[in-house]
Amino acid sequence: MSCCLLEFCRVQELKTVRDFLFQSQKTDPPEDKNQTENELSWDTSDWESAWDNNDHKGDDATTVEEEGAGQSITWMQDCVVSLSPCSDLLVVAREQKAVFLSAKWRTDDSGREEMTLAVSWSGTLSTEEGECVSSVICVPLASQKRSSTGRPDWTCVVVGFSSGYVRFYTELLNEDPVLRLKCRTYEIPRHPGVTEQHEELSILYPSALVTIDGFSLFQSLRACRNQVARAAAAGSDAIQPPPLAYKKWGLQDMDTIVDHSSVGIMTLCVFDQMKNASILGGFHASVKGSPPAMSQYIAVGGGPYTGFYYAVEGSSQPLLSHVALAVASKLTSALFSAASGWLGWKNKNEEDPAQKQKPKVEPATPLAVRFGLPDSRRHGESICLSPCNTLAGVTDDFGRVTLLDLARGIAIRMWKGYRDAQLGWVQVSEGRGERESSPSAPLPRRHAQFLVIYAPRRGILEVWGTQQGPRVGAFTVGKHCRLLYAGYRLMGVNSVTSQGWQLHTQQVCLLDPTTGALRTVTVPFHLALSDKKSERAKDMHLLKKLTTILRSRDALESLLSNKNAPVSCLTNITRALHDSLKERDPEAVDEALLQLCSSQLKLLQLYTDIQQLHSAADTDTSSELDSLEGIEEDLSRLGPTLQRYAQLTSRPSVSFAQDSPDSPLPARAFLSQLECTEDGEVRVVRGADTEWNQLGSFLFWGCLSGESPLRRVCDTLQQTGVSPQQLLSLLLSVWLHREKDVLKKPEETVRNLHTLLITLSNMKGAVEESWDPQSVSPWWQQVRTACVQSHSAAAALLAALVAHYAVKASITSRADSKLQSEWEAVSLELEQWAVCVRQLEDVLVLQTLLWVPPPQGTAGGATAQCSVKTLLEGGRGGIADSIAKWVFRQDLAPERLKEILQRREEKEGDDNSEQSEQRRLLVAVCRRFPDSLSPDLLFAHCCWEYVVQWNKDPEEGRYLCWAVEHLKLVSSPHIQLGISSMMWSTFIVKRFSAAAFLMEKVGKAPKDRLCRRDVGMGDKAMTSFLGSCVQLLQILMEADSGVEEVPPPELCVEEVWCGAEGPASIAELALEQRGVHYPLVQHHCLLASLLYAAMTFSLRVKPLSLFDSKGKNAFFRDLTSIQLMPSGDMDPGLVLLRKEVNPDILRRHLVCELYSQGLDLRAEEAMLEVEDKDVLGSQLLVLTGQRLSYSLLHSQSQTQPAMELLARLPPTLCTWLKAMDPSELRCPMVPLSQSSRLVSRLIEILPENHGQYSLALHLLEAVEALTTED
User: Fold this and answer.
1) In sequence order, what are the residues at sequence separation of 6 or more whose Cβ sits closer than 8 angstroms to the Cβ of residue 256?
2) Where does the Rab3-GAP regulatory subunit N-terminal domain lie (predicted)?
3) How far apart are CA 737 and CA 725, in angstroms?
4) Is residue 1131 scored above 80 in pLDDT?
């Protein structure tokens, strides 16, 4: 109940704000070489005073040094700072720059939602040359909607500049610099006689005071904001702002004015009116019948130290016609500019400084000072008006804080030792109900004023009661903070719209630039009472509050919900309250409170008993082990799979400590999940899964792990009346949830689970005595349902095995007790369990495979969680679909998968490698699902999975290639045909047509940018895509040809999984597809081959132009439709041209190209088909000369023997070799043995009478000489 300083917000990115505002100082002092580039200058006076201050010693000084290293912590004192009263916008400005920080909500490390202020805009606000920001205020404007609850509609930032401009934006009001901006908003009058104050914005200049009517300003700002929205939507930024009404007073009779306060309209009483008239007019002065209304203004500065001005209402108001307003709206991005910044909306014609002319400055109305506080040596620095407009705090250059009574115009209190002080006010209302309990009419609520003084020289924040009250609070806060006090609330509120509103505003905030924390001062009302009664008032306040709370059941509920209260304390308090209520008159006792006490006592006793049982040293020995005979064989059979499953699921993972199942269950959580009914029985209330599992762990985990006497625990729970069905649900939830702990000791936990199941099933109300043997037991059906729905495959299987044995023993005992054999009931119930166990074994093997981690560097992804229920709901293809997703995650090549499936009938080897284990697990799954995972179904699902993944990322052309490879491995042409058709129509044809139209448009293989724009993939990926299209269409044609030869396959499913219901599998959908039109597929395949060749060899071709109109119209149609196809006859002109071309020329060109590529062996094969050997010999002679020229003249590794050989060659041959150009060869570096063989072939081809035969002989000698030298 004392004064406190509470953090409600934190400012983010303060270093970014500082660096932006002080960019010009980063490189100013070149002599500071030891500073880093982010450091600013140090203020050594702060360090020296910090060492001398006794409040900061040792570690504190070290902390300040560490936190302040590399940055200046005094930078905010040089900035203009303003915080919106709603705390949703903070403005920090310096010189021409400003930064806007808006409120955002984020979740901290502990999961709590907290408010932060983050940078939303930063830039330059000044538009005139040399002007700087001198004052800023943030004015929140109230919403005009009827549904508003008090939050502002938007916030207008009003900025005053040294040039005299005040911009939200408004035009020139005075040519002197703006000293201070202040605002006054509507406050609800406390008493009927209090004058209702009007809203107002006041702007102080060195010799003038401008006041703008709040209502007029509010309407103008709303109108201009709407104009900006419409102008932005129309793509323009020209608006016509409406005129503003304002008053301009020339404050006289003071030497200097640095700050002001507009107190508002005041009306004098008759005596004061007559007194003033007599003083001003003398003995014969006339007095008006009604006192005039006057606006009071207080100015501080020098000569006098404080001046009081009074302006009589009713004077004419000039109209400001040239107004350029700007509204803070981040949505008007079209209006962002360096000149206007975040606020900017101005007329473009007025943007150019050369064209813009300053408007006429209206003259000020002289206003003489009525009286003042003369003190020739004292100069005022700031004034802060109280919320009730009756008091004001003034700071001066002597380090004093003076409290003024504005009604009497006198100083009533003074504090000294507060140099550079910053002031604020806190108004506190009396709590509701404290004065409403009076027997007479309820008294009005009282209000108290507290003055908040921040002394930066001492680093202390003080709270003082006014007018003559003591200091009620003091906080050590640091020496570089800023005290932010707005003194106003929302603009646009009146007595009608404020009805029912809750104005969420902070009165005083302290901003710490070192941590970014925003803290507010909270003061209890009782601290405003006098010194003698303050302690008693505090005690009375507490007593009243406690009495009020304890009279309701909220007290007990809030006490029981306390997470830190010990159980013994809760029990004692509840019992004391219960006994106290019992002793009272029954008619005066709240029955609901008494019943709450008794029920909570019962639950607390149950909580204590369970805790004591879990801490007991003795445990029960199980006597129902006879019915578990045979389960050891099942455990040994499942042992390897369970062990591998446990290894795969025990990988480290991140979890929160409070979510750990081993964390103790608080009494609060226990009481929140249990309740007592009117019959006195306990009922469990199902809450969140985490809380439900915690309650189950608290009740049963000690029994399952063998650390608690499970029979005594069950007896205790049975005595409370909890239904066996709820206990069974809790037992199964903890068993399935703590699977990892169960698998650590499976044999022991299985025995304890069996004992618990038998004990719970023997409770009254568990298994009905009148259970019809022909039907299924609801009790055991609950166990089956939990196992079937669980994703914990191993724990569910173990629970099903235990329940199976328990059911078998129970039915046997029932049959023996009735002396007859209930064969129908035995077969029906046990058949259900046999199917369930088989399904869970299948799921365990499948889940073990799915848990295998993918290799590093693959796409990976989350491990699929499966259960019997999800597999049944996934349809007949659900199992194959989950395996296909696993194959994709493992990046398993199609050939590798085919190899594994071919070995599924072979015996497992002893290889323990990771790939071998992967193969063994996959083979084991395939053996358990012989029908659902037949090769064709698995390849079909893998094909579909890969093409789906390719569609998500078309740049991965390998995915589509592997999809086609999987499709090739499908043996059934019916399934091949259907899947190919679905792939083409669903994923391929759209991109294929886009690629064709793009190549037709550019007339060549398109570049990477065009491919990405039109087809959605790069040029390399598009080449791979077109190659896959060719293969897909070929598969489609082959499948269509083979459909008639093979009957469609029958899709089967395992007997235990025949109840699967859900979407049809890919194979079933494939068999439902219609047949395709073969010529149309062939037509598309021709186009795909053409596109693929054009992309591969970078050909210049327009592919669609090579087809006639029928061929073009047939493209990209549904492959099942019958289209008009081209006749297939070749163009006669093309046939004639081909006849004119000599094919021997093409053969000779092919031979030369092969030799140019260095493919001599293939060239020799193609040479056999050439008819004109003489011409070919001449061409090859030139090619041989180019090779030899490269070896002798152009090679980088020229040897001395080669140079000597060149000197010995005939001059004719040397000249001829020098004329050769080896750059025409595609592969000039060819072994000399190949060149020697080529010259030998030349000698054979050329006849002896050929003109170049002698040249060929010289070449042969040169090559042989070179070969000998090597």
Assistant:
1) 206, 301, 302, 303, 379
2) 75-484
3) 18
4) no
**Per-residue pLDDT, 582:** 80
* Prior bond of 304 cis (ω within 30°): yes
Identify the H or E element spanning 556.
Answer: helix 554-560
The sign of the torsion formed by the CA atoms of 596, 597, 602, 603 equals: positive
Select the more confidently predicted residue: 1002 or 570: 1002
Tokens read off for 1104: 């669609």
From the list 1050, 1053, 1071, the residue with the least C-alpha distance to 1062 is 1053
Contacts for 1049 with CB less than 8 Å, ≥ 6 apart = 936, 972, 974, 975, 1071
Tell me the mean pLDDT in the region 794-809. Answer: 90
With beta carbons less than 8 A apart as the criterion, state whether 299 and 260 touch: yes
Token digits for 285? 């002065």
CA angle 1235, 1237, 1242 (to 5 degrees): 95
As a whole number, the mean pLDDT across the chain is 80
Q: If you average pLDDT over each of 115-129, 232-246, 412-426, 890-904, which comes out highest? A: 412-426
For tokens 């991965």, name the residue. 956
pLDDT at 45: 37
Token couple for 746: 């499976």
CA pair distance 1243, 671, nearest whole angstrom: 107
> What gap in Å lies between CA 280 and CA 1016, rounded to an integer?
88
Q: What is the C-alpha separation between 1066 and 1053, in angstroms, rounded? A: 14
Cα-based angle 571, 576, 578 (whole degrees, multiple of 5): 95
Question: Which residues in 1192-1205 are b (16+ Cβ under 10 Å) and which e?
Answer: bbeeeeeeeebeeb
Burial of 1033 (0-12, 13-18, 19+ CB in 10 A): buried
Helix (H) or strand (E) holding 797: helix 793-817
Measured between alpha carbons, how far apart are the two ends of the chain, in Å? 104
- Residue range 707-727, pLDDT digits in tens: 888 888 888 888 888 888 989
Cβ atoms within 10 A of the Cβ of 1247, count?
A: 9
Q: Could you give the C-alpha distances from 215 to 112, 173, 294, 931, 1183, in angstroms and in order?
A: 40, 19, 19, 81, 96
Residue 741 corresponds to which amino acid? Answer: D
Q: What is the mean pLDDT of residues 606-635?
A: 71
Model confidence at 934, pLDDT cuts 50, 70, 90, reads: very high
| 1186 pLDDT higher than 90 | no
**Ramachandran angles phi, psi of 276, nearest 5°:** -65, -40
3-class SS of residue 310? strand
pLDDT at site 675: 85
Question: Cα–Cα distance between 103 and 88 in angstroms, integer?
Answer: 5
The pair of three-digit structure tokens given for residue 13, joined into one six-digit string: 């990115």
Name the amino acid, one letter, at 76.
M
- Residue 209 β-bridge partners: 204, 249
Question: Taking the complete model, does pTM exceed 0.85, yes or no?
Answer: no
| The predicted structure's pLDDT at residue 58 | 40
pLDDT in tens, 251-264: 998 999 999 999 98
**Pairwise CA distance, residues 383 & 147, whole Å:** 38
Where is pLDDT greater, at 430 or 589? 430
Give the Cα separation of 383 and 698 in Å (integer).
63
Q: How many of the other CB atoms lie within 10 Å of CB of 333?
A: 8
Spell out the domain ranges in the chain.
Answer: 551-605, 617-648+667-689+702-851, 868-905+912-1139, 1143-1268
pLDDT digits (tens, 9 = 90+) for 825-847: 455 778 888 899 999 999 999 99
Lowest mean pLDDT among 383-397, 583-597, 665-679, 1195-1209: 1195-1209
